[in-house]
Amino acid sequence: MLRDLAKIRDILTPAERRKAAWMLLLVVLMALAETLGVLSIMPFLSVLGRPAVIHENPFLQAAYAHWHFRDERGFILALGLASIAIVVASSLFKTVTLHALNRFVHMERHSISARLLSRYLRQPYEFFLTRNSSILGKNLLSEVDQLLFELIQPLSQLFAQGAIVLAMALLIFLYDPATAIGIVLVLGLLYGAIYGLVRKRLARIGLERQAANGRRYQAASEALSGIKDVKITHSAAAYQAQFEKASRLFSRHMATNDTLSQSPLYLVEATGYSMLIVVALVLLLRSNDIAHVLPALGLYGFAAYRMLPAAQVMYRGFAKLRVSSAALESIHRDLALPDEPAASGDALLAPQREIRLQGIRYAYPSAPDKPVFDGFDLAIPANASIGIAGRSGAGKSTLMDLLLGLLRPEAGTLSVDGVAVDAGNVAAWQRAIGYVPQHIFLADASVAENIAFGVPRDRIDMQAVERAARAAQIHDFVANELPNGYATDVGDRGIRLSGGQRQRVGIARALYRDPPVLFLDEATSALDAQTEEALNEAIRSLSGSKTIVVIAHKEASLRGCQEVVNIGVQSIDSLHGTTEAQ
Ligand SMILES: Nc1ncnc2c1ncn2[C@@H]1O[C@H](COP(=O)(O)OP(=O)(O)OP(=O)(O)O)[C@@H](O)[C@H]1O
After folding, report:
1. Most buried of 95, 152, 248, 257 (most Cβ within 10 A)?
2. Is the CB of residue 508 less than 8 Å from the CB of residue 538?
3. 451 C-alpha vs ligand 1 centroid, how far in Å?
4. Do 264 and 400 have their domain in common?
5. Closest C-alpha residue for ligand 1 atom 6
6. Residue 252: inside a domain, yes or no?
7. How far is the CA of 436 from the centre of ligand 1 (A)?
């Protein structure tokens, strides 16, 4: 429990920690206000039943004298009004506090998920090679909710109700210490025993719930993003079954969790009220005077009425903490990921002489013993156009990712004009590059927004968009055939465009900023021969003023390059030696 509290503390920012402390105080005050509201009716009721109490009770007597009441009716009226005032004030306080609490919890959901997304987005590219994107999405959306509504909220209730139990126990203690200790002991033992019985099961449910939630997200996201393959292979039923299995398990665990954290109430209620009857009988047997027993019983009855549900909420807090600690653990771990500095400024590391890879060794994290490159060298003169050829799987895309600074070599350096590219200047280097990947990602936005990718809509330079589109051989299509020209929406991942059109939008994107370096990875593979030739011609016209690196399987695509580097001549495992482009 203490470890979990420390984790919650870590997750919050210092300002949120202060706010959480205030909230906790408010929650406790709210619980006490609630008790006070109910408690304030007691003197009114007892005076109403027997006005003589006014003169017997020292407090009521003092109040009666202090405010110079002349008759009992007036005092009872005042007592009634005072009770109404307390109940109304306590309700107002509770309403305001409730809003503050709701706001805190919901804003925490926003704050934690926003910080988590920012942390994920700042991770190096390699991080995403080992983590499943739907699981990351699940953490951001579903696990943060689990943490807040199934752990932090019940936990704050645990503290609030703890205050009530304490206040009530104190009240009874003042009246009758032995009974107070007895009640706390019985309640503590009862809940302690139940918790001891179910705690292992709760922890297991917590872990399984989290795993099933992940599988649920993964099945839904894979089926929907791969809908074409799902349709054509008729694998919808398999995905449906996969989703349902995980979803059913997830829901079953949520139900068991709710039951296990709620059900002891009935058992404890039965025990509590049985105890009340036993206490009444014992008191009656001891004193034989029912009038003497009744006030004591009234107090115990009231205490039971407030304490039993409060103890139940406390137990629920412990149970939820147990189930949700898996969610807490994963969010705590991911928020502690190294915080890479976000790229800022607009410096440009543009090559004047050469781009050089030297002594590069790189192995993917999932295959650390099988380096794709080991001792690899490559020099690319500035403003030259270099082709990279090689058989499938030889490492062409890996080489491009290394050149892009997306993958960091285990050994060796990437340098631009002798300046080593590192975490400090990689953003400046990437700003100098226009990159067309093998698989182009289009956002569900307009053609113009996709070309000026990442630029806010009102800051898009439409002239630059058109210039880039002309160079990418897509302007005529956009201007003449799309209903709204550059404002036409391309649909989810560009589904309303053909493969070749998507590819040309991707090329226009790389050209939008008119970068000094252009990297093209199979950029023309989806184009017909005529369009490809026109595009190659356009790219050729850029050569001499830009450094261009082209990866292509087809020799025709590399024809315009001044030099072709073949990296497929050696086996992947032993790609040593020098491959130098002069
Ligand atoms: N994320 C990854 N984790 C582990 N191995 C990978 C990963 N990506 C690629 N590889 C492996 O690295 C090697 C080089 O892959 P790469 O994609 O660079 O080849 P390529 O030459 O671009 O192939 P193609 O022409 O088919 O696109 C391959 O053996 C591939 O299986």
Report:
1. 152
2. no
3. 27
4. no
5. 364
6. yes
7. 17
Average pLDDT, the chain: 84
Give the three-class secondary structure for 368. Answer: coil
- Between the alpha carbon of residue 224 and those of residues 228, 229, 238, 245, 446, the distances in Å are 9, 10, 13, 17, 22
Give the nearest ligand 1 atom to 129 CA: 1
CA of 24 to the centre of ligand 1 (A): 53
Asked if residue 344 is part of any domain, the answer here is: no
Residue 580: pLDDT band (50, 70, 90) is very low
Number of domains in the chain: 2
Q: Which amino acid is at 52?
A: A
- Ligand 1, residue 553: give the atom nearest the CA: 25
Answer yes or no: do 500 and 381 share one domain: yes
Write down the pLDDT at residue 569: 56
Best of 396, 402, 406, 569 for a ligand 1 pocket test (most atoms within 8 Å of beta carbon) = 396
Residues with CB under 6 Å of ligand 1 are: 129, 364, 366-367, 372, 390, 392-398, 572
The whole-number pLDDT of residue 321 equals 87
> Which atom of ligand 1 is nearest to 567's Cα?
21
- Tell the residue nearest (CA) to atom 3 of ligand 1: 364
Same domain, 189 and 293: yes
**Is the pLDDT score of 575 beyond 50?**
no
| Whether complex ipTM tops 0.85 | yes
Do 370 and 290 lie in a common domain? no
| CB atoms closer than 10 angstroms to residue 337 | 13
Measured CA distances, 28 to 163, 475, 578 (Å): 6, 65, 71
> Are 110 and 243 in the same domain?
yes
Residues 312 and 359 in one domain: no
Question: Once rounded to an integer, what is the mean pLDDT over residues 526-542?
Answer: 73
CATH of the domain at 477: 3.40.50.300
Q: To which residue do tokens 């025709």 refer?
A: 556
Q: Which atom of ligand 1 lies at the shortest distance from residue 390's CA?
A: 21
Instruction: Select from 130, 397, 410 the residue to mutate for testing ligand 1; criterion: most ligand atoms less than 8 Å from CB.
Output: 397
Query: What is the atom index within ligand 1 of the atom nearest the CA of 367?
Result: 4
What type of residue sits at position 469? A
Q: What is the extent of the structural domain holding 145? A: 2-335
- Taking the CA of residue 581 as centre, how many other CA atoms within 13 Å lie in the half-sphere pointing to its CB? 25
**CA 7 → CA 3, 326, 367, 479, distances in Å?**
6, 12, 33, 56
The ligand 1 atom nearest the CA atom of 395? 18
